[in-house]
Design goal:
Largest sheet: 7 strands, mixed
CATH topology of the largest domain: FAD/NAD(P)-binding domain
Pfam family, one: Pyr_redox_3
Distance between the termini: 21 Å
Organism: Microbacterium protaetiae
Protein name: NAD(P)/FAD-dependent oxidoreductase
Structural class: alpha/beta
Shape: globular
Oligomer: single chain
Radius of gyration: 23 Å
């Protein structure tokens, strides 16, 4: 392992690869990528549950400079995306140090000192630290009395136990979010499924289909066709922002479409009532599925319309009082999203990143943080989307970081006032949206402060313009030239 680099990138998922490519394009080659797992891929390496797929159209969920004509369908499977990322890393000759976790990182005497473990233990000294650790990496395990007493297989959906034989088993799935709507229809084909639903989701048609061999051949031979499709998908995504963010007419139309979808697929009124949300459209993540409702309507899945409240050995007790026997439990309960685990490992000028974010994640430009010189965070504070492809945001952030490093040598510090102003701007933009005022609990909002800390409350166009305008000359950043 090298002892020094200009830039250390932590993570080798979409964000880490995007950063490495952007830095190379800017002429910055002294870069080391470390990855705690045994391969690249991030989310798409970790999630291998039955039915795992992306809910962003495949031709928009890819790097702009690596179009892939051979996606199997409108929405890519998880294994396809992992293979895509592995191929991009190979083509770009990005070779991360695998099985190499960041144990901690500290800013000392103008240098980041990154302590690593695993296959490459040691200390890396770097001028710049770029965190590409992801936001959906650490499974959230619910605090349920007696959960540890369950005698059978119990695992989180992102840590799928492929050795567990679930054929014919009574399987309880906890949660009805994006993972569950993909997992449950597949699991119901082989097991007896009971689904614990704390809160129903707004679900709209997925309209997935495979691409024909002729279509894939046309994509491969006509780059212009592929570019036009990508542009169309991008504009469709940007148009969805209105319904997700609370525009009255757009939200009303989208809500009606979701209710029509529910009514068409669930004829039973009682079941339909249990599956109907009582909060504003867009407050929680809007889900896409054509298979989830039919699985419940067919009777193949038993809906328990309340949360899991307690576990007594193999008996699962619902908040509504019902008791269910289970042979296995799958926790589709999401991730530690607002309190990022890596934050406690990173120490800046006056404390840890977790200290700085103790009231919720803040930043300037969703990318740089006051008190943490020469550090960039990708896919962190207010950099997620509820309406379009997150890869677009990651690429914008990677380009911002590369421009900063290419234009300005030395120590770069963010003005705390600029970070505070940016956070206030985010708060003002979010205040009237469904994410804050929609009458639900969601993973976009930090419960410690009630602030929207995950989502960017605007369009991708607006985010790009923000980085280009406010970040074009990096005025909020103090440069100590020549410092190391």
């Amino acid at each position: 392992m090298p002892e020094r680099a200009d830039v250390v990138i932590v993570g080798a998922g979409f964000a880490g690869l995007a950063a490495a490519m952007a830095l190379r394009e800017a002429g910055i080659d002294d870069v080391v990528v470390i990855e705690r797992a045994a391969s690249v891929g991030g989310t798409w390496r970790d999630n291998t549950y039955p039915g795992v797929a992306c809910d962003v159209p495949s031709h928009l969920y890819e790097f702009a400079n690596h179009p892939h004509p051979d996606w199997s369908g409108v929405f890519a499977r998880g294994d396809e995306i992992r293979t895509y990322l592995e191929n991009v890393a190979a083509v770009e000759r990005i070779a991360p140090l695998l099985n190499t976790p960041m144990l901690d990182a500290a800013w000392e005497d103008g240098t980041w000192r990154v302590r690593t473990g695993g296959s490459h233990p040691g200390v890396l000294a770097a001028s710049t630290l770029l965190l590409a650790c992801g936001r959906l990496t650490e499974p959230k395990i619910p605090e349920v009395p007696g959960l540890e007493s369950f005698p059978g297989p119990i695992f989180h959906s992102a840590r799928w136990d492929h050795d567990a034989d679930l054929r014919g088993a009574r399987v309880a799935v906890i949660g009805t979010g994006a993972t569950a709507v993909q997992l449950v229809p597949e699991l119901a084909k082989v097991a007896e499924v009971t689904l614990f639903q704390r809160t129903p989701a707004w679900i709209v048609p997925r309209d997935d289909r495979p691409y024909s061999p002729a279509e894939r051949a046309a994509f491969a031979t006509d780059p212009a066709l592929l570019a036009r499709l990508r542009d169309e998908l991008y504009l469709e995504g940007e148009a969805r922002f209105a319904s997700r963010s609370g525009d009255r007419d757009a939200a009303s139309a989208a809500r009606a479409a979701a209710l029509d979808h529910l009514a068409a697929q669930v004829p039973d009124r009682a079941l339909r009532r249990a599956l109907t949300p009582d909060y504003a459209f867009g407050c929680k993540r809007v889900l896409l599925s054509d298979a989830f409702y039919p699985a419940l309507a067919s009777g193949a899945v038993r809906l328990e319309a309340s949360a899991l409240a307690a576990v007594h050995a193999s008996t699962l007790v619902a908040a509504g009082g019902a008791r269910h026997e289970a042979d296995a439990v799958v926790l589709a309960t999401g991730f530690e999203s607002t309190e990022q685990p890596y934050a406690q490992l990173v120490r800046g000028e006056t404390g840890t990143l977790a200290d700085h974010w103790s009231r919720g994640m803040t930043s300037f430009g969703s990318t740089v943080v006051a008190g943490f010189p020469n550090m960039f965070v990708l896919d962190g504070p207010n950099a997620s989307l509820g309406h379009n492809s997150s890869v677009l945001m990651i690429e914008a952030q990677a380009a911002y970081a590369a421009r900063t490093l290419a234009r300005h040598a030395g120590v770069r510090r963010v003005d705390p006032a600029a970070e505070a102003a940016y956070s206030a701007e985010i708060d003002a933009a979010a205040a009237s949206t469904p994410w804050i005022a929609g009458g639900c609990r969601n993973w976009y909002v930090d419960e410690r402060s009630g602030r929207l800390t995950l989502l960017w409350p605007g369009t991708v166009d607006a985010f790009r313009a923000k980085l280009d305008t406010d970040g074009g000359e990096f005025l909020p950043v103090t440069i100590e030239r020549g410092a190391r």
